[in-house]
Amino acid sequence: MTYNLATREAVAMSGQGAALADFVRHSGPLRGQALHRLAIACTAALARLHGRGTSGLRLTPESVALGTRGQVLIGWHPAAAGGSEAEDVRAWADVVVFAATGVQDGDPAVLPPALRIAVEQCRHADAAARPRAADLLRVLLGHTVAAAVASVDDLLAS
Prior knowledge:
Layout: H1 8-14, E1 17-19, H2 20-27, H3 32-51, E2 64-67, E3 72-74, H4 85-101, H5 113-122, H6 133-140, H7 152-157
Antiparallel strand pairs: 1-2, 2-3
């Protein structure tokens, strides 16, 4: 997984893949392993960026690209007035639902149960009740939040 400043135009010009929005519109929604890989890769990128103090990323289906070798490239556009980690995980949830349904405000009921629960938590109306990206990553990797004490880098290394 890669999380560089990669725009739709840069990916298209390089021939290295397609923006998630374009891919889903042309090939249909993601399912199974492809959807889970996208969810984990985007969450890992958010967790690392948040760990370095970067938030307010305005993640969208247009700023996530799927590489030709299965890598996920994250391009972000920092919000002019800042932004919060809670807004980023909400945007992550919207990207995952789009990837699974092909529509912006799709029904998360099509998601596998564990992913659906994570998405619902990230869409919580109270931003303070949303999980941190690092906690979300632990859950997606099969760890319980209460038992997980490893850093994001430790989890990604295993």
